[in-house]
Amino acid sequence: MRYLTAGESHGPRLTAIIEGIPAGLPLTAEDINEDLKRRQGGYGRGDRMKIESDQVVFTSGVRHGKTTGAPITMDVINKDHQKWLDIMSAEDIEDRLKSKRKITHPRPGHADLVGGIKYRFDDLRNSLERSSARETTMRVAVGAVAKRLLAELNMETANHVVVFGGKEIDVPENLTVAEIKERAAQSEVSIVNQEREQEIKDYIDQIKRDGDTIGGVVETVVGGVPVGLGSYVQWDRKLDARLAQAVVSINAFKGVEFGLGFEAGYRKGSQVMDEILWSEEDGYTRRTNNLGGFEGGMTNGQPIVVRGVMKPIPTLYKPLMSVDIETHEPYKATVERSDPTALPAAGVVMEAVVATVLAQEILEKFSSDNLEELKEAVAKHRDYTKNY
Ligand SMILES: Cc1cc2nc3c(=O)[nH]c(=O)nc-3n(C[C@H](O)[C@H](O)[C@H](O)COP(=O)(O)O)c2cc1C
């Protein structure tokens, strides 16, 4: 399974094409729209989120509510493109109009300046439009298709915020994936500890008043994972490594960890390894899940626990100093639009990219043309694993 996304932040539409989803997967626009809505929500998001209310349109690969095995094309219309017709026009326009919304003051922490240098632009809007996190809309759409596939195989994903701008959220122990999902869905800041809700919202309000921004850490968990996805035989087949790439590819994500993650560097081996147990009912299990579901780049059947760190949003209403690329004079950076935080939304994107990599991996190990064929192969594998 492979996919590409296309589209600009203020262009007419965003597009994704996915190839390799088996035929027969029940799929509706509603499955996708629900996650698109979650990506647009979360406490602390601003006006564009209200304008957009994204809706996906399938233009290929789905017929009568089921996938056909053909490439799936999904489009999301950018509703505010109507106000950007000249500025984003594919046809050449008069120079007088070109200077409208031209960007010559690059924003620190964004792709503006380096993109301009690299592609030789005199208007940094060309970098901004594609590097914008608006693109993550389509990664969420692709992830929603992947999640539908995983759900058919009894795999479940959830995400929640575990650190909000330095404030650690104390997570109750032994929550199931379903409980995490349910609790995070009830929270406007996507946390599982309701007692901290008001404090975090007040904090976001304060950051907004200060004209500043915050990042944090989001966690994705996956339950029902078959043993043996990924492989140790080649560096680029290690599934934890593939997930790491996917997570750090999300705009503003700067690092990733599994299970105990960096904490493992502070502990002794006896406090890190997950002891192996066996029972007739469950087959092989582990006493703990410190390694986040991975050994040797392969899934070990424990829930996958992966965390990503998001830097604070770079666009500040208290703008930072920059340089005009035409005059080289110091200037305040351009403010396109911004929010104090996008962490809850970023968690939705992270869950989507994790689900996508897992669906790719499943389809690599259990290559199938049809969903029933895939289900049979996975069920057979689970049976084998349990009795090994
Ligand atoms: C869901 C999401 C929403 C974002 N929203 C904004 C935003 O409103 N303003 C902004 O300046 N950056 C936002 N970002 C971050 C930028 O897109 C990102 O920092 C920038 O493209 C530079 O890429 P880099 O941080 O990966 O180096 C957002 C990121 C995500 C994941």
From TrEMBL:
One of its GO terms (cellular component) is cytosol. PROSITE patterns: CHORISMATE_SYNTHASE_1, CHORISMATE_SYNTHASE_2, CHORISMATE_SYNTHASE_3. Reduced FMN (FMNH(2)). Its EC number is 4.2.3.5. It holds the Pfam family Chorismate_synt. Pathway: Metabolic intermediate biosynthesis; chorismate biosynthesis; chorismate from D-erythrose 4-phosphate and phosphoenolpyruvate: step 7/7. Its cofactor is FMNH2. It comes from the Bacteria. FMN binds at R130, S131, S132, N251, A252, G296, K311, P312, I313, P314, T315, R337. CDD domains: Chorismate_synthase. GO terms for molecular function: chorismate synthase activity; FMN binding. Homotetramer. This is Chorismate synthase.
